Structure formats: C-alpha cells, structure tokens
C-alpha cells in the first residue's frame, strides 16, 4: 500500500500508520476478550509453572486460540516485537492439550510429573522452531525456565526440538522460499582467516557495552510500567479505554518510522528480518580505503542517505529502536522481546565493525597477506551479546551459530557473551525475572551474591506459627470449620492438639470427600427413607385404633393424590428440602378437606426438616474415620534451625510450595513460598510472621552459629547420658557358676 501510493505522501502516511494501528488494536481487543492470559511473552509464566505453581486458565485451548491469532496480528503489524516467548507459550499449550487428550486413554499421562516433563520439552520446541536452532533452543529453554534441570528431560527436549526445527525449514522449501534446508540467516564469512587476535579487544568492548545496554533495557522497560501504574489518573483512564494505549503507542512508533519522514535516517522502511539480513552482510558499508566499493543493492539502500553517513544512521537506529522496543513490549498483546533486542545488538556490533573498518582501511596484515575487516562478524557478536545480557543466558551464542550457519566466530562470540552476562547480572535481573516481579508471580527469587554461611536467617525467624491443622480424633464439625476458614491445598494431621506430633498431611479434596460421604445426598436420602417407613407404620397404627372401626374407616379413607394447587406447592416445597413427597403422598390419608391434608403435609415436612437438621448435627459430632482417606505420611519437614540458604535450595530443587517446621516431631509452624520470598527480598512484615531484618540481622559474632549449635547438642547428649537407659541383661557370676 505504501509503495502504490508514492504520488501522495499524505495517503502513504495514512497507509503506513493505519495498517499497524488496526492490527495491534484488533490483537489487543481479541486477546482481552477471549483470554487475557495470552498477553505478553509467556516465558515468565512458564518459568513459574515449571517451578510447580499452578496458574489458572493459562494452559487452556481458549488461551491457545487467543495467543496464535493475537501473535499473528502483532507480528504482521511491523512493530518491534518478538516471537520467541510466545512460541514457547504456544508449544507449552500444545503439550498441555496433548497431555489432556492422551490422559483420556489413561496410563502415564495422568502423572503430574510427566506433564512437567512434557512442558520442559515444549519450551525447547518453542525456541527451536522459532530460529530453526534445536541445540540452542534446548540450552536456552533450560537457562531461562529452570533453576535445577532433570537430565532425563534432556534427550526429550532435543528429540522434540529437532523435529520442530526440521518441519519449520521443510515448510520453507515446500513454499519455495528456499531451495534446500539452510540456516535462517545464512552468512558467508571467510573461513580461512575470520578474525585476527588484534580484534579481540574490540569484541570484548562489544560484550561489556552490551552488558550495560542489556541492564539499561530491562531497567527502562520496568520504569515505563511502574510510571504508568503510579499515575493513578492515567491508569484509571487506560483501564476504562483498554484499546487506547496500544493504539497510541503504535501510532507513535509508526509515525517515527515513516520512511519519507524521520524513518529515512534510521532505515525505517525495513522489517526486522530485512534489517537483520543487511546487518549480517559480510560486505563493508564504509568506503574509506576499501578497494572493492560496496554498492547499496536491494534492502541495503535503506541504510544509505545522501546527507548522512552510515555511522549516524546506525546510531539513530540503535537509539530509536532501543526505547521503541522497550515501550512496544508493554503493549497488552502476545509478543516477546528477544528478536528486537537481537536486531539492536546486531546494529551495535555493525557500528563497531564499520568503525574498525574505517580505522583500519587497509585491514589486518598477517603473513604478508592483507585481510580486510568483516563488519558482519561484529554484528553476529553484538547480537549474541546484547540478547544474552537481557535474558541472562549464554546459549544465545549457540543460537547465533545455528542461525547463521557458521561457527567461525565462536571465540569472540563466547568472550562477548560471557562479559555481557557478567556485567548485566551484577546490575539488573533478567528481563523475564523483571516481568515476574512486575506481575507479582509466585516465583522464588535467587539469593544474592555473597557468602552463604553469613546468612544467619533461620526458618524459625520467617515461619508462620498459626498453622491450620486437624487432629487424629477430630469430628466432622472440625473438618467443616477448617474447610470454611481457609483455602489451603493441604492440611497438617497431628496426633492431638496437646502433643502436636505431626503424623502427615491430607489434601483438601480428600477432606471434602470425607465430609460429603458423611453428609452427602445418598446418606441423607437413606435416612429420609427410613424416616418415611417409620412414619408410615406410625400413621397406620394411629389410623387403626380398634378392629371394630377399621372397616368403617377403610370405607371412608382414600389415598392422597396431589391434585390441588396447594398440594402442588407443597410438593414443590418438599422437593426443594430434599424430601420425597411422592412417598409421603402414598400414606397421608384424608377424608374430605384437601386443605387440611395440605397443612398436614406441610407440618410433616417441617417436622422432617427439623429431624434432618438434628441428624446433620449428630453426623457432624461423630469422629472422623481416616481409613478411606489418602494421607501423605511423610510431608516435607524442616527443623526450626534450618538456614535460609538450605531452605531456598530445598524449595528450588524439589519444587515445593510449602514445608512444615517441626521440633522433635512437634509441628510448630509452616513456611511457604510467600514467606521465603519476603525473607529474601528483605520485607518480612506479614501478620503472623516473626519480624526480623532479613539478611542483615547477624547473630552474636563472638561465637559462630555452628559452634553454638554444637555446644547445645553436646549438652543435650550429656543430659540423655545421665538418664539410665535400658541395657541388655548381663549374666552374673552365680549364673556362670551354676552353668
């Protein structure tokens, strides 16, 4: 549309702006209506789910439809948005839906651990088919989603990711986009002498600068979100007009990238894919001293401006795309941030490479041969370094090799990525961890750098002491009260309220099942039938007081038929109260007045209701029978002196969401992800938690905590030795003599 309207600039502008605004607005509206869970990247939520936390409505078919259609529109708009995170989410949705389908046939797919394994493999598939990089995809998914990774899932991830990448590239051949299966962004760098050792400092500079840039990107993105949230008036207005914010952001970015306008100074005409292809080109754009002058052919013409050299164009491209990408990923549409950051990093590397080519126009002299600088290699290094800094991963180096099809720059890429990670990790959390904090997802943060032995915070300092529990000799009324007062998934089972000896834990569903069995409809109906039979016998006795009037009464007596309006109302009222009025109509006699019979029916129903209430009270006062209940006899337990570091390791390794705190077998508290997270972040201020400044309240430094605990243990042992322990019977001398 833009190319066909070259005669009128205003119409070109309308076409250039309207198309993205309509697509982004549709994507935001469709996603918001169908499934708001589809908004955003998907990797932070998958990281939380793989941690063991259940996020409602996140892996449903409705979310799958919203994610696919919303992502298609968002990518088609041309905004600086990525697809890697959404691909991970889509692959996880496929895995979850396949798992549900296969569970219909029973077997291993009903196992919860198998579902987690499928989701772990799905994360690798998402990255693998996004870039046709199965090896880098598996490694990247491990780095961004797992604190501890089960090695048994390793080959499963490779298996699934390899097939996904293969099908992705085969489809390109079938569509005649490619002649054969090749790398997605194939480069043609020389292999005999790709770089010189003298260039390694420049690659190191790219890595360090990318580390600062990655940290700045994460900080700037979080700053935008926090600014909008703090402005309450703006926030309330945008909550009412949900589609206004994405439309305004898209309008701003589209206006700035309009090619006849400011876009001519930043290659605004190019899409992300076209920009990346030109940035990875092995030909040099700067013409100082280059024997073979490079002609700007095809898409590379967008970087050429008659009044501005290529360095200014690259700088403007980096600066503008930097804040545009940080702003664009805050739009409530399915989108990621990896690809925009990847392109910005490639542009920064290209800038350094072109600068090196300008400073060394004759190239590098080696063995009497002149090797010219290859700026495309610098672009590869910059792309891997900046994307690695933003995501806190090293596997971006492997993704780059698979993406370009060449491994010639393995050393500079690894150096730059490691340096970028070292700088970025010391300044800011990764982009995914930052989004987890913004969305307040229940994920356990990592412990900061430092000496873990100095973390003298213990479980007893952060645990919740008011624990919900049930006793072994409790009644059904206690179960009913406990289920009404809280929403805990599991409850502790103790021996008695006095001893508090922990016997195990019971899931909430099991307790609800016990209660429903005791007070459910089958038992209630059984009681009603028994009462009905008893009432029938009683009424038959009352209606036949003596044998001589029996024939007279029988001649006048007719069985009650529910025919009058009052009878219908009474029947309906009785059914609502779970009474079987049909049974009652079989034995309620009347002679003349149907109204009196209706009153009799209502009276019997009220009596029946009172008897049901009394029966329920009796049932609630009975002792609970735990024989038919699944009890976990060994729930995860911690002693009160367990350190914060050990607790964090156990929770992360086993994927726990809570653990009971015991002292010599007695239940004294419970610690969950919430308390542990607050302790690590240094804000333990919840009610029911013993407040102590986390990571700062060091105990008496005169004696170490290990020495104190050792002396206490020795005292305890000495006290036990003083008690006479039962010993085996030793034969006396008289016994020996007698033998």
3D architecture notes:
It comes from Gouania willdenowi. Keywords: CBS domain, Chloride, Chloride channel, Ion channel, Ion transport, Membrane, Repeat, Transmembrane, Transmembrane helix, Transport, Voltage-gated channel. One of its GO terms (cellular component) is plasma membrane. Its main location: membrane. This is Chloride channel protein. The chain is mainly alpha-helical. Helix content is 57%, strand content 5%. It contains 29 helices and 10 strands. It has helices spanning 9-34, 43-50, 61-76, 84-103, 112-131, 134-145, 154-174, 200-230, 232-240, 244-256, 272-279, 310-328, 338-359, 375-391, 396-404, 410-427, 431-439, 459-462, 476-485, 508-519, 521-543, 550-556, 565-576, 581-585, 594-620, 644-654, 673-681, 705-722, 733-738, and strands spanning 364-366, 369-371, 469-471, 490-494, 502-507, 558-559, 589-590, 637-639, 658-663, 666-672. A 3-stranded mixed sheet has the order 3-4-5. A 3-stranded mixed sheet has the order 8-9-10. A two-stranded antiparallel sheet has the order 1-2. A hairpin with a 7-residue loop joins strand 4 and strand 5 (502-507). Helix 6 packs antiparallel against helix 15 (396-404). Mean pLDDT is 76; it is low at 288-293, 550-595, 683-710 and 723-739.
